[in-house]
Amino acid sequence: MPELPEVETVCRGLAPHLEGRTLVQVLQRRANLRVPFPDGFCERLTGRRVESVRRRAKYILVHLDDGTVLIAHLGMSGRMIITPERPDAWDAHDHVVLETDVGTVVTFNDARRFGLMDLAMAETLAEHPLLRALGPEPLGNEFSGPVLAARLAGRMTSVKAALLDQSVVAGLGNIYVSEALFLARLSPTRIAATVTGAKAERLATAIRAVLERAIAAGGSSLRDYRQASGELGYFQHQFSVYDREGAPCPGCTCDVAKTGGVRRIVQAGRSTFYCPQRQR
Ligand SMILES: [Zn+2]
Q1: CA 71 from chain center: how many Å?
Q2: 58 among known catalytic residues
Q3: How far apart are CA 65 and CA 87, in angstroms?
Q4: Does the annotation mark 2 as catalytic?
Q5: I need a surface site. Which of 81, 180, 211, 259 has the fewest CB within 10 A?
Q6: Which of 48, 55, 56, 58 is catalytic?
Q7: How far is it, in rounded angstroms, from Cα 109 to Cα 115?
């Protein structure tokens, strides 16, 4: 499933192909994805010039010159494929096609169809049902230790569960919550409300750091992509603890034979990876 860094990378990959370009043809190849397409979907996009491609949480926001905003979510398996011209044939999972005035084609392909697309107007975008309950953007200027502490205050769930709550921080998923808690040396089972002061500061800094590191890795995959496949959405990334059960903890020098290395536990049905020696 694409997480925030992947979505950011997709936005950065789309921007040079869409910004300033006019959408001369828009194809919708089925009636619905996870939800139905809005009425007049293709008509409202056709002929419009793209002003910017932005990201909010894990949503891609394509701003158009008449104030319309295309909201896209990649779901579990969505990809954006950029080709210099129309392909000879469509894949069964090519659901939406945007063709620009220079002939470039952006195809949204989603085999599992958990993705979605909707339209909104820029002036009421923040009130859109998908966006209005979202917490602060972790890479935004408004995010800080005190802001995070205030959002965690009074929450008696685990800090892991609290960070997955999109109203606490926007866009964090299972992978980067594990990674950020590791970097901040905080146990995922700690009660969220106890993360205050210096701990909250450490956690906010760690969240930014793991996301920025992953985006940097995505940036290098983007450079590869330009020479290669044309598909945006996923990249390989080395994690410290995520999916590394039993591996030596990269933060400790302790003996794996004695400690068991990185531990996996299940919280609210999701795997959490952490080091019990280092994270308290
Ligand atoms: Zn450790």
Answers
A1: 13
A2: yes
A3: 27
A4: yes
A5: 259
A6: 58
A7: 9
> Which is catalytic among the residues 44, 190, 213, 270?
270
Using alpha carbons only, what angle is made at residue 15 by residues 10 and 135, rounded to the nearest 5 degrees?
Answer: 60
Strands 59-64 and 50-56: antiparallel
Whether residue 235 contacts residue 6, with contact meaning beta carbons closer than 8 Å, is answered with yes
DSSP string, 103-140: S-EEEEEESS---EEEEEEGGGGGGSTTTTT----TTS
The alpha carbon of 253 and the centre of ligand 1 are apart by a number of angstroms equal to 7
Distance CA 198, CA 192 (A): 14
Spacing, Cα 178 to ligand 1 middle (Å): 13
Please report which helix (H) or strand (E) contains residue 257, including its range.
helix 256-259
Task: Report the predicted TM-score, pTM, of the whole model to 2 decimal places.
Answer: 0.92
258 is catalytic: no
If one counts every other C-beta atom within 10 angstroms of the C-beta of residue 61, the result is 19
- Spatial contact of 180 and 139, defined as CB atoms under 8 Å apart: no
Alpha carbons 220 and 212: distance in angstroms, whole number: 13
Task: Single out the residue of 196, 190, 180, 185 nearest to residue 157, CA to CA.
Answer: 190
Closest to 58 measured CA to CA, from 135, 127, 152, 160: 135
199 is catalytic: no
Q: 94-152, pLDDT tens digit by residue?
A: 999 999 999 999 999 999 999 999 999 999 999 999 999 999 999 999 999 999 999 99
User: Ligand 1: distance of its center to the CA of 220 in Å?
Assistant: 29
**What does DSSP assign to residue 92?**
T
User: How many CB atoms sit inside 10 A of residue 20's CB?
Assistant: 14
> What gap in Å lies between CA 215 and CA 237, rounded to an integer?
10
Give the residue-averaged pLDDT of 62-90. 93
- Say what the alpha-carbon torsion angle 169, 171, 177, 179 is, to the nearest 10 degrees: -120
Helix, strand, coil shares of the chain, percent, nearest 5, are 30, 25, 45
